[in-house]
């Protein structure tokens, strides 16, 4: 029995370069403009700006939740939430600490620009804070 193959994406004409593939877009969206920012928040164009927008809108609202685990009963409890303001403070402290350590280790008079940070770990609040700190300090993440 033959299975019908439907194209999920198509290569955009004229985008292939020597040594590279072309740019692919989802079928049906080949000629539609890319969404560059949410229509209701045209000023939001980066991850950092998205977080700052949430902080501005809801500074005391929940942003990052951690589900509590009891190793004795082997059960999960409810979530404990950190607000945008609490997480913003942790982002600033962690990010500025990373920059300072990097500056000290490399004996730099001024903080270096555009260096990379490797984040290795499972999804958890600390990973999110690390990633957001890199965005806040214009650092690239790898992992």
UniProtKB/TrEMBL annotation:
Q: Which GO terms describe its cellular component?
A: endoplasmic reticulum; membrane
Q: Name the keywords, alphabetized.
A: ATP-binding, Nucleotide-binding
What protein name applies here?
A: Uncharacterized protein
Q: Which portions of the sequence form the region Disordered?
A: 1-23
Q: What is the lineage of its organism?
A: Eukaryota, Fungi, Fungi incertae sedis, Mucoromycota, Mortierellomycotina
Query: GO: which molecular function terms?
Result: ATP binding; long-chain fatty acid-CoA ligase activity
Origin species:
Entomortierella chlamydospora
